[in-house]
Design goal:
The protein is mainly beta. The chain has helices at residues 3-13, 15-22, and strands at residues 24-33, 36-38, 41-44, 48-59, 62-73, 92-106, 109-120, 132-140, 149-157, 159-175, 178-194, 206-222, 225-235, 252-266. A hairpin with a 2-residue loop joins strand 4 (48-59) and strand 5 (62-73).
Length: 281
């Protein structure tokens, strides 16, 4: 009997198995950041909102993920000290980052590969001419202290060239529903170039150490939702590109953010049957 036919019959004859195969993880949320900083480059010195949706499906002992992150510029500040991703009407949807990934565990290590698109939707400022696709591979050890992770990406489009990123993150639980988290992230570019017609992308043209992010925050469980306030310090040693109107890249940036996320597994697994209680005589 062909393997696919046997699997089809097994799922048809066993509703429990079918539900287990079709169970998916769905998480959604929204983030707020006081500045939008990407790889040490300030894309917006104004606050932005970032809604996100993540879907994960089990595949052969691993998982297949689909996610979409969007950036919304809610307002434009009337001051020469601020700049955003668009000079058009606000609120405005300025960016979408759809991504797909496939991950697999090998003992304590997790290996994943996939692709992420950076699609810029504004008609002024950072426009579709800066669209980029990143092909991403990562290797991490999520169960060891500080969960080290190394990522390699090759960008093609508005940004072109290889990029490496290392990350550490540790969570310390303080009490039920309360945890403290610290982490760091550093990037290194190899002969990356950027579309020179997009002024905001000029700082991406560089070779060498790009930035260091140091983050401290909290994880709070409130009414089934995860609330995560944090503060990040970004250091860009020796910026190689002169500041672009008024300052797309600085030596030191301090910014704050917060995310609100909800989600779970659907359909929910059935509760285990309770053993029958003996009848009292």
């Amino acid at each position: 009997m062909p393997r696919f036919l046997a699997l089809t019959l097994a799922l048809t004859l066993s509703p429990v198995a079918a539900r287990a195969q079709l169970a998916i993880d769905v998480h959604g949320g929204i983030g707020f950041v006081s500045q939008y900083v990407d790889r040490g480059v300030i894309l917006s010195s104004e606050p932005v909102l970032q809604p996100r949706l993540d879907i994960g499906l089990p595949v052969g002992g691993g998982s297949f993920g689909i996610s979409v992150l969007a950036t919304v510029q809610p307002l434009s500040l009337d001051s020469t000290r601020y700049f955003g991703m668009t000079s058009g009407k606000t609120p405005s949807l300025t960016e979408a980052r759809p991504a797909i990934s496939l991950s697999q565990r090998f003992g304590p290590m997790r290996f994943s590969w996939g692709a992420e698109g950076r699609l810029y939707l504004a008609k002024t400022g950072i426009t579709k001419s800066a669209n980029t696709v990143s092909f991403v591979t990562s290797l991490g050890a999520p169960d060891v202290p500080f969960a080290p992770k190394l990522t390699f990406a090759y960008d093609a489009g508005g940004i072109t060239g290889p990029y490496f990123e290392g990350e550490l993150r540790q969570v310390a639980r303080i009490a039920k529903g309360v945890a403290f988290t610290v982490g760091g992230r550093a990037g290194y570019a190899v002969d990356q170039t950027a579309d020179t017609t997009v002024a905001a992308f000029a700082p991406y043209t560089r070779t060498g150490f790009t930035h260091l992010d140091l983050t401290a925050g909290a994880l709070l469980t409130v009414a089934g939702a995860m609330v995560s306030p944090y503060i990040t310090y970004t250091c860009v040693p020796n910026p190689l590109v002169p500041a672009v109107g008024p300052a797309r890249q600085l030596d030191h940036v301090l910014w704050v953010g917060m995310t609100l996320a909800v989600g779970g597994r659907f359909p929910k697994p059935p509760k285990p049957a309770q053993p029958a209680q003996p009848i009292a005589k």
